[in-house]
Design goal:
Layout: H1 2-22, H2 29-41, H3 50-75
Length: 77
């Protein structure tokens, strides 16, 4: 069971790295970080299309990553 959890953790980790690298940058430089944060806070920029799909996959994979990490730590005890 421990080996299965570690194998799933490695697969989810590689998938999470790939999905994060596929996402486009939201801002360019320091000025984009300041103004981009305000626009996202007030909802002027909505993610659509591929960005929305990649965002949702990132959320799902990150939750799986944390759950599998906790499972591996409990199984190794």
């Amino acid at each position: 069971m421990h080996t299965l959890a570690i194998t799933l953790l490695i697969i989810v980790s590689i998938g999470l790295i790939g999905v994060v690298l596929l996402q486009s940058g939201k801002s360019a430089g320091l000025s984009g970080a300041i103004s981009g944060g305000a626009e996202q806070l007030f909802g002027k920029q909505k993610a659509r299309g591929m960005d929305l799909i990649l965002h949702r996959i990132t959320v799902v994979l990150s939750v799986l990553f944390f759950l599998l990490t906790i499972a591996v730590s409990f199984l190794s005890v």
